[in-house]
Amino acid sequence: MKNNFSTIEKFVGSLKFAIVLISLFTVAMIVGTFFESYYGTEFANRTIYKTFPFMLLQVLMGLSILYAAYLRLPPKKRLYGFYTIHSGLILIVGGSFITHFAGIDGNITLPPLTPKRDIVLDSDQIRITNLNTKEVITYELPDAAFETDIDSSQDQITIMKFLPYSEKKLSWITENARNINSSLRSSSEYFLSNGNVSQDFVLSLHPKAFDFKSNLQLGPLNIHYLPSPLAPCFGQNKPSKTILWNSELQNCFFPEDRGIEIKKTDSGKRFLVIKEGQTIYTFFPDVSPYPLDTSFNTIPDSKYRIFSKGIFETSPNLFLFGKQVAYYDKDDKKWSVKPIKTKESLDLPWMGFELTLLNHHTDKVPAYIPQYTIPIQKDGKMIKGGTRAALISFNGHEYWIRDDQAITLTYRDTKYKFELEKKSIRLPYELSLTKFKMDTDPGTNNPASYESFVQLFTDKGPQDHHIYMNNPLKFDGLTFYQASYFQVNQDTYGSVLSVNIDPGRPIKYLGSLLLVLGSIWHFVLRRKKVKPPTQVANA
Amino acid sequence: MALRPKKKKGKTTNTGSERMKKLFLMMTIFFTYSLAPAQANELCLGKEIGDHAILQNGRIKPLYVHAGELIKYITGKSKISDYSALEAYCRLSLSSLFPTLEMKVFPLIEHVKIKEILELEDNKQISAKEIDENYRSDLLLAMRKEVEGSSLQKSIRRLLSTINIIKDIRAGTNWVIPTQEMSSIDDFTPINTLFSALDPSQMALSSELISKEINARATQYTKTFGQETHHKLEYSYAKLRLPVIALILTCLAIASFVLFRNFNITIIFSALTLLVQFAYIIVRIIISGRAPITNMYETVLFSGFASLFFTMIIGHFKKEPMFVKIGLGHNLLSIFMINFSGGMLSASIGPLVPVLRDNFWLSTHVTSIIASYGALALSWVLANSLLIRNKVRPLSSKEIRYQASIMYTCLKYGIVLLSAGIILGGVWADYSWGRFWGWDPKETWSLIVLCIYMIILHGRYTNWITERRFIPFTAVAFLSVMMAWFGVNYILAAGLHSYGFSEGGAIFLGSFFAIQIAIIALTTPKILKEN
After folding, report:
1. For chain A, how many helices (H) and strands (E)?
2. CB-CB: which of B351, B447, B491 is closest to A29?
3. pTM of the complete model
């Protein structure tokens, strides 16, 4: 038995074993650098550098280094350098493991003059908030690189799958519920283009189309998506240019159709009044689409809305009603409504633009369904696979949550909010960015230095600190470094600080020192004089 | 001058007919377009304006250097037709005022696809104006169709930026001169502000006026701020062309031992080479105000200098001329790259990204890394020379053992310096952005280099790497250095160390790898055979 053990010791401490380990380590690192360059830092970490096999390799290397030294004991003078190198290496490996398991590495984003206290870490979590009781449950997601099945359940919620890298793909999902108001549930996909630019977009009125809105701004062009029964009124060029919409009856009319008089206030603002039984609605069509009640408060949930077409005549506005299009023609000085069929194009009066209807549905909901993809990085930016997503099952139905969109679901009168976010740690004090300073090189816009002036709000009152490149702030065991910045307005910037705790630091530093000194010592002790062959010496 | 009497004459004969007026007008036009350009020509001859200060890319430099770098960037050449870069730059800058100074500029076009878009036949050139007028939309369209970051897209972007620079120069906005007030060291204004201030009636005198004004301001600027800027020194430095001198000296040093077998002469030429390189590096430090190792150009220059310097010292103490020979070999390669690599290694001195602005860490970390690459390059030079010599005339086992011991000495220095450099880098990273090690490609590759040489050193103690195998192994191992030094920037191009990134090196690196592998394949079987 003892013999067996010493054989293993000899094997682990042998040079050949060390060579095999270093070679494997080298190959893994080479692959890692290529992964990093194609797929990004995080993907390389999650497939190579921070995986179990790579860690195991490092542990084995540590053991090999340890046994190599152990086998060469008792100490011999000519090996002093060798012992020093090997103890240095063991300290570095040990220190790195302490940093990996006990350290914290995150960052804190500071918009100007906004106190913050959360340090954002690298791992992801799902946060489920019960909006009624404010109770929060978090579920930590694995640091995976590929699509991962999870199947973790609690009550009526199951987290089924996690996609660390995904692309959003537009899908049309058939709705099971019987639809009552088809025009209020319509969704359309259009394609707008001229010779130079093109844009694909989806607009929807459907209440479950979480990813889409009913209006869009493309450069100077405003696009509005409206229920189709409104279209006929856009086509009629009546003098008041004011359309009323009854969302209950799904119809539209002009005030003059029903003999409603448009009056003017003393200041010249147009207004009109509708009486319906006891209720009185007052409209200021050029100010707001919502009616006011008798005490001049807005009624946001009223069944009536008003549109003053006149205010949309001065700038490019496009009104879409699914299969109909309306706009104001400046040359003819009138509104026109035109039909558009699926897969057909229509010329618009602005800069040679052409509109194509790609899809139109009233019984299907458009949604972005995440699909796993290997991420792609170019010039330091992720250009593909930048969305994280998780599939959950709630009350028997499946839903996708993404890091760029939270969803809220109801179960037995309780609302739950689901978020996919970065894990974070709360600091016992707050940080606020009082000023961010960026100097540029003379005559250029290239930054020459970044500096953050921050204020710390602790129990003992506020403290001012100045953080810049190569001058971090050390406070309460944490170190804050100037990492990045972002633009908020023309001349205001926010700052990103990286924050860490590194308990392995002193050990790694000591190890490094021993390694360098040891290798010098080793080469000095092991100097060998090889005599030159005579013919060379004569040459 | 010549106009004055004519003007008077015009006034005195005011009572005369319309014909006189016409004549006067014609004379004015004649003088404007014939005399003025002649003087403008003189203005652009370059003797006087070359050392004028100009503010470009965040730095005060001499116009001579700026014009040279810019014309090289635009055309890939150091001249436009028969005009020197400075003359061409000057003429183009003044061409909006004096149309006769106008000349055609042919931007550098290398991408085959761009040549197709521009309908360019072989060996034909197309001027910037023609591209701008006829092909701009085609280029934009082709660029939009490409995947983000593709080589064609990058090349088109470069071409369009080149065309914009040419437009800038022609508009007189690229050439900036000190303002009248000179309120601060970086208070400059485009030269075209002089044009608009000119009195139209004195058009004929304009070139003389401009020339006077430019010279006056340059002199005044040097008087006011000359103590703080180094543009005069940089002008003389650029004119001296020290890298060419160093190249000639290195060649002479090598020739002296190869052809004449006189090692004393070699020592003298090596010492002279070192002196010239040292002067070149020192002046560069004075001009840039930082350690001379912040871009590819400087690291290549420094590694050649450092290895020749150390091999001369080690060779002296060990009484072994071989060290100096391999030192010269490496220095020749690096100085050759400095002189002829063109756009791959840019000699331009520019401001640094903020994270690098720490002279202590920059000079310790980068210097030790580059010095270690230099030392490893020595072992590589020797390994290859042994492989080739053995192929031509087999070496004795004794000689191989001796040469291997020299290689081993170089490796020792290289490895100690590299470990120290990696650790210093870790400490700097920890100090300035809070992590000792982050698996960034540049730092990972330096660790890969260390591991590969560790495999060789450990393997030497086993029967896996014998004395004879040691030689091809050392030659191949240097490919990892090339990858860490150039490959990360030219091929991987990602990560935090992105400040050192340059373009156009992939072909260089690819051919380097191919040649090295070919040498190994051809020579290794022979060296592994015992005689």
Report:
1. 8, 32
2. B447
3. 0.82
